[in-house]
Amino acid sequence: MDLIKLYNNNDDLNCPQLLEGLQRRFTMFNGGFGQEQLDWLHALLTASVTKETELDLQGAACHVPVHPGSTDPICLAWNYEELLAVIRAHSSVVCYMAGHSHDGGYCQDKDTGVHPRDDRRGIAMIPDQGLLGIQ
Question: What is the CA radius of gyration of the chain?
Answer without folding.
Answer: 16
